[in-house]
């Protein structure tokens, strides 16, 4: 099965965390579907919501924070206002200071995945802007490991 076919076959059960998002009129573009820039906004939001709720992240003051170093998205079907989106999150790999997330967007009430994206973050120290030689802090790592789907692929 190709990578795209594998992504297109994703279901909500493939993910460990789901966040609901009510689309807004302003999310639509002139083609009457959600603008591609909104997907990145939503992916960033589901990741940071999870980090704040489950990993002890406090964006203004945490000693470490995640910098996005890579992102991409594969679109399969559109979604538009007034639909309710369900953002599904999992972790595919964890390294010493980095994590690769996979995010799927579903439309509430529909089974087929609408898009699947990837974000890679490197956690850096607030004071230096560089990764810590000891890696990410233990509370952060434990929270991310709860979303990890393949323990063998846990090194970036």
Automatic annotation (TrEMBL):
Keyword Hydrolase among UniProt keywords: yes
Pfam families per the UniProt record, alphabetical: 4HBT_2
Q: Which domain of life is it from?
A: Eukaryota
Write out the similarity annotation: Belongs to the 4-hydroxybenzoyl-CoA thioesterase family.
From the UniProt record, which GO molecular function terms apply? fatty acyl-CoA hydrolase activity
Hydrolase keyword on record: yes
Give the record's keywords alphabetically.
Hydrolase
Q: What is this protein called?
A: Thioesterase
**Organism whose genome encodes this protein:** Podospora anserina (strain S / ATCC MYA-4624 / DSM 980 / FGSC 10383) (Pleurage anserina)
